[in-house]
Amino acid sequence: MKNLKLLTILIFAMTILISCNDDDDDIIPVNEEEVITTMTITMTPAGGGTNIILQTRDLDGDGPNPPVITVSGNLATGITYMSKIVLLNETEDPAENITEEVEEESDEHQFFYTIGGGLDATTTYEDFDGDGNPLGTEFSLDAGNVGNGTLTFTLRHEPMKPNAGLVDAGGETDISATFNVTIE
């Protein structure tokens, strides 16, 4: 009985000693993920004309309401559009511009553009991180032949850079949205 009592005390003491280990110096600070409620893509036609605005807005996040996705107009065939993506957290008042944080942490982020449904368009990155790898908050889009399809914008956090595209980039998706687009 004395041996059982001694063994119990010994196990208790070892548990306390192990749990009191001073590993606080090894704690890695957590970088909170960005809250993004709104993504707005402003596409400005080279040579002038009316801007095309693509927007997804989801003010309740994972709530019951789906995001509101809008496209302000159609793209024109043969036109190059200089484009800028703006990300907002509209749960804050005033709204927080998340684009600034993404650009400051450009080595940890990358936008990917996916063209689908037979849409005749090509994209080109126009901004880069400090190592010369694509960031993608700015891009150009060349609208080809008449038709329709989709444009999907995906922001990845901590992708492998360089990469061959979304298929091998890895990382975590911060936001992704698909827009139905027409070229006329």
Overall description:
- The relative contact order is 0.18.
- The radius of gyration is 24 Å and the shape is globular.
- By secondary structure, the chain is α+β, with helices and mostly antiparallel strands.
- The strands form two sheets. Strands 1, 2, 3, 4, 5, 7 and 8 form a seven-stranded antiparallel sheet that branches. It has a three-stranded antiparallel sheet with strand order 6-9-10, with no helix packed on it.
- The protein has helices at residues 2-19, 98-104, 166-169, and strands at residues 38-45, 52-57, 68-71, 80-89, 96-97, 109-116, 121-125, 138-143, 147-157, 172-183.
- Strand 4 (80-89) and strand 5 (96-97) form a beta hairpin.
- The chain starts with a helix and ends with a strand.
List the helices and strands and how they pair.
Blueprint: H1 2-19, E1 38-45, E2 52-57, E3 68-71, E4 80-89, E5 96-97, H2 98-104, E6 109-116, E7 121-125, E8 138-143, E9 147-157, H3 166-169, E10 172-183
Antiparallel strand pairs: 1-2, 1-4, 2-3, 4-5, 4-8, 6-9, 7-8, 9-10
